[in-house]
Design a protein that fits this description.
Elements: H1 2-25, E1 34-36, E2 42-60, E3 65-74, E4 83-91, E5 105-113, E6 118-126, H2 129-147, H3 149-174, H4 179-199, H5 203-229, H6 238-243, H7 254-287, H8 293-322, H9 324-332, H10 337-342, H11 344-387
Antiparallel strand pairs: 1-2, 2-3, 2-5, 3-4, 5-6
Helix pairs in contact: 2-3, 3-4, 4-5, 4-7, 5-7, 5-11, 7-8, 7-11, 8-11
């Protein structure tokens, strides 16, 4: 009973400490972030608005352009309830033709010149972020409702992971640091903190931590080696290509970012497998303390093999789902299979899926054998103490 109270207090202290760290370092993210021009005269800000009226709607058939004169109302911020006339141009040749109607909620890009006291706006896009907040809230509520205390722990670990990626990993990569080394360091920190929060400090957690880190290193090393000899560029999408032209992103190692992303993409599945095996072996040992170590390892391997198929599917389907549009383009244009898999985007996704799955499979024997080693080490230590 005293041990349980001690563990609870230790965990509680850790949660409070992490909470203080978040409060101190994690500045609230302003979804309406604003900026000033270098002359400090023009304010740029994103706010939500609603379309009140389409004042004119004309189509120029010769140029295939559509012009809308739209009256919008700003819904929030300093300029709330102001109405503006916004000219919106639609290229009729484009697949996406954003034609707006009264009642549509939109995200406005405001430009306010302080010297001329002039306010202008551009319709940036349909307003979507509130619905993202709703679905995120539903996800967190489901964690709390079904998971209870474990749900709270899951939210803490998820927050810590997001904090590490957004506030540490991305700034370090932008600064020119090696993305692979940085991702391994970040993933290792996430692994240790997450497992300690979820399962506490014990042999089960130590086994899962070591097994997961080993699997992640295998996946990352293999991705780096195969990606190098396959001459992957890391510029696998239009967004990355656009990023390469930005001067502030000139120090980014895009190939390293690709490999770092592979490591992070495999992390969740590898953590799941490692903890499942470690937890199962721990429970088997409690139920049968006299079970031979070899048999315990074999039981862990059997559990891992059962998990292996579904988790490999999870990784491969996740990467495949993200590449459906690229796959459709190649198939519709009747490219050969060799040309299809040889393209940089598809080759990158295949290497992501394969190396992540290999790291996952490697985690199974690694975790099982580590549990056996830790058990033998503990047994020998106890025997030595008893002998003394």
């Amino acid at each position: 009973m005293d041990d349980m109270q001690y563990l609870f207090r230790s965990n509680l202290s850790m949660y409070l400490m992490l909470g203080c760290i978040f409060c101190f370092f994690m500045k609230p993210y302003d979804i309406y972030a604003q900026s000033m021009d270098q002359d400090n005269q023009t304010l740029h800000k994103y706010v939500s608005g609603i379309i009140l009226e389409i004042q004119s709607d004309e189509i120029d058939s010769s140029s295939q352009m559509r012009y809308q004169d739209i009256k919008v109302e700003i819904l929030e911020g300093t300029f709330a309830h102001h109405t503006l006339s916004v000219f919106h141009t639609i290229n009729m040749a484009n697949v996406y033709q954003y034609k707006y109607v009264p009642g549509d909620k939109v995200l406005l890009s405001l430009h306010y010149n302080k010297v001329e006291n002039k306010l202008q706006a551009i319709i940036y896009d349909h307003l979507r972020y509130p619905y993202l907040l709703y679905i995120t809230g539903l996800f967190l509520a489901s964690l709390l409702l079904i998971g209870g205390k474990q749900g709270i722990k899951a939210i803490i670990t998820l927050s810590f992971t997001c904090f590490c990626i957004i506030k540490i990993y991305i700034p370090l990569v932008i600064s020119g640091n090696n993305p692979i080394i940085t991702s391994i360091a970040i993933c290792s920190s996430v692994i240790v903190i997450s497992f300690l929060i979820i399962s506490g400090f014990n042999r089960k957690t130590l086994t899962a931590i070591c097994g997961t880190i080993g699997g992640v290193i295998v996946a990352g090393s293999l991705a780096y080696f195969i990606g190098g000899i396959a001459n992957l560029t890391g510029i696998e999408s239009e967004e990355v290509e656009l990023l390469s032209y930005i001067s502030s992103a000139s120090s980014i190692d895009f190939k390293g970012v690709l490999f770092g992303g592979i490591i992070m993409g495999a992390l969740g599945a590898i953590m799941d497998v490692s903890m499942s095996i470690s937890s199962s072996m721990y429970e088997i040992e409690i139920a049968n303390p006299r079970i031979p170590t070899f048999q315990l390892i074999q039981s862990g391997m059997n559990v891992g093999i059962d998990i292996m198929g579904t988790m490999s599917n999870t990784l491969i389907l996740a990467y495949l789902g993200g590449s459906i549009n690229v796959i459709l383009v190649f198939l519709i244009y009747n490219h050969s299979f060799v040309a299809f898999i040889n393209s940089d985007p598809i080759a990158s996704e295949i290497i992501r899926a394969m190396t992540g799955s290999i790291g996952l499979v490697t985690t199974i024997p690694l975790t099982a054998f580590l549990k056996g080693i830790f058990r033998e080490t503990t047994t020998r230590t106890v025997r030595k103490r008893a002998y003394k």
